[in-house]
Amino acid sequence: MSQLRTLVARSSVSGLNSLFKSIPQKPHTSATQTNHHRFTVRAMSSEVDAAAKAAASGAATSHAPTIFDKIISKEIPATIIYEDDDCLAFRDINPQGPIHFLVIPKKHDGLTQLSKAGPEHKPLLGHLLYTAHAVAKQENLSNGYRVVINDGPDGAQSVYHLHLHVIGGRQMAWPPG
Length: 177
What we know:
By secondary structure, the protein is of the alpha+beta class. It is built from 5 helices and 5 strands. Strands 1-2-3-5-4 form a 5-stranded antiparallel beta sheet, with helices on one face. The relative contact order is 0.15.
């Protein structure tokens, strides 16, 4: 496993596609799942690029409206699957699994990323996680799902409005990053 990590760390993104092709697949793995894994590598690379651009632009400290603020105010369309007074859940436009939705707070309250959370944010953070659970149940993810919070440039955060990714509907790989 450590050899694989070393190889992955030294490989370019285009080289990763051939690496994934060379990894023996479990007997129950379908071509669709294999193709999905290759797609995910490309998507992760573009997400890392987007995170680097966001960090370089000063988005982390900006008070400008984010794309999520525009979704909340209905300026930008989204497939909203849950909404209450405090948060909103909607489908990701670049899904990394059969089911992929985001849960976002409606108000920033100074909370652009998890590492900026203070004691005053505990109720909101709990509500976001509970909402992720409730919507996952609504989406029939009874076999499990992954909850991801990207934090800062190294965490590949590309939108500085705290948000949870909930991904499910297939077997997740480990390690995730």
